[in-house]
Amino acid sequence: MASAAVASDREPVIRPLLLSEHPSDATHRVYVRGQVVTTLRFEKAVDASKTKLLGWEGRLEPLAVVRNKVVLEPIHDLADDEGIPLIVTLVDGTEVAFLLRHPGWRQSDGADQQVDVFKDPESYASMHAALRKALKEKSALTEENERYRKEETSEDHALAALLASGAIAQTPFKLADRFSGKDDDSEVDAQVFQGKGKVAVVFKVKNTHSQKPWSLKSARLVTKNGGHARAVAIRVTTREITVGSSGVVAAVVDRSAFMEEGVLTSLFLEIYRQDGLRQAFVQLDPALLAR
To answer: Within this chain, do residues 90 and 177 fall inside the same structural domain, yes or no?
Structure first.
């Protein structure tokens, strides 16, 4: 039941780009995906007659300019090593060069949905965007620190760490099932374990990509009916799996996660890799809970 599929619950990606922060960068990268619209938004109106893509035929829909926005839509995904130049000219004559790239194995947010481009760092809009970015980063750091604090005393995280390290004999789990799968970039071998009041899954991931590392972006545990999120303890053996190497992602689910309105229900466990694609999923049924 291992698979690769695009994650459908990703929040809209709005990325501020302050040109003054990158004075040495003559060309700014914009990350695009096939059949996904990406919008570049500027402080001033865009001169449509002097804004152009180079070598885009057959790879993108015709360029669209709407006042201060440039709208892009690739017909299909670009290759990892492929780039399409874009020159945007504003009504005041300012030229800004971009290079459209596939997000590939980009570590952060994948494809851009909207890029807000600011030339003047002192403008209200530019300072507001910078403040929002800083607050978002601070919030993420606070959330991460709180998560680490809770994980230090979590029994389930301790069990997940033992499973990830291969010390299965030191846990109360017994093997219940196996499954495997592969795509062009990776191979997954997984084991499902049952224990007293808990269920565990261990994913062994081999990175078969020719150039780029693999890492875990996120894991989701949801109810089969309704898709309600549930808590899951995750541990990995390494933050990044290099080319040709393998790593382990271990998950432990408590009995309480299976409860919905007083009744035990089935769950879906999904793991997503760094580019936002779903790497593997498994259905966990209440029957796995040993008594």
So the answer is: no
